[in-house]
Design a protein that fits this description.
Structural class: alpha/beta
Largest sheet: 5 strands, mixed, barrel
Strand order of the largest sheet: 2-3-4-6-5
Strand content: 25-35%
Number of helices: 4
Oligomer: single chain
Number of domains: 2
CATH architecture of the largest domain: Beta Barrel
Length: about 220
């Protein structure tokens, strides 16, 4: 009997050790460090730079019919940026490169979590509710994600398939989830009163156990 109990204790300890307790930053994959010169600009400067890029493109496309008022705007924004010591041409030349690097960082996932049992907190965003219960939902890092604000990057969204139906008490309900993780791009449709949107997701949690967040505090 003692040996049986000892074996059960060892098995329980091993199972606990194999569960990875994660928080949202843990889901971000590694991308090589890069210098992002756009982070040094304030919101007005970013707006002005965007306007310069847009107006230059319009001028290049239709040089003979480029409106005088747009030419004046281009001159004004160019002067404002130049007086602030901003290298307009240098920044615009790097724009696509930085955009691509930012996209890589937003999509980078942790492939070493594939097939591992993980446990983490987040906010429950139902995909489909039937009679007050949900078996599939998105786990997101903040209230309002995917609806009131632009969606988080794919590596900050987890698609959860619950082992048992979960009674939904409120939208963005705080919960803990624990289950088997799969890593890879998944797209799910999210439906709103005024339309729908496809959400790109970096992780899936299979056969997940769901528990209330406050029960863990």
């Amino acid at each position: 009997m003692f040996r049986t109990l000892l074996s059960l204790c060892l098995l329980t300890t091993l199972a606990t050790a194999e569960t990875l307790n994660l928080v949202w930053p843990d889901l971000q994959g590694e991308v090589g460090e890069f210098e992002d010169p756009f982070t040094a600009l304030d919101s007005d400067q970013l707006f002005h730079l965007g306007m310069v890029a847009r107006l230059r493109a319009m001028q290049q496309a239709n040089p003979d019919t480029f409106p005088a008022e747009d030419a004046a705007e281009l001159t004004k924004f160019t002067k404002t940026l130049s007086e602030s010591g901003i290298d307009i041409d240098g920044l615009l030349a790097k724009r696509q490169e930085i955009t691509d690097l930012r996209r890589q960082r937003a999509n980078a996932t942790r492939t070493d979590y594939e097939g591992k049992t993980i446990r983490m907190p987040g906010y429950l965003l139902p995909l489909d509710v039937t009679e007050g219960e949900v078996t599939e939902f998105l786990l997101v890092p903040w209230v309002g994600a995917c609806i009131h604000t632009p969606p988080p990057p794919p590596n900050q969204i987890v698609y959860v398939k619950a082992a048992e139906p979960w009674t939904v008490r409120s939208q963005w309900e705080p919960v803990y989830v624990e289950g088997l993780m799969a890593v890879g791009d998944v797209t799910k449709g999210l439906y709103f009163v005024d339309g729908a949107a496809d959400i790109h997701i970096g992780y899936t949690l299979q056969s997940a156990a769901v528990t209330p967040f406050e029960a863990e505090e």
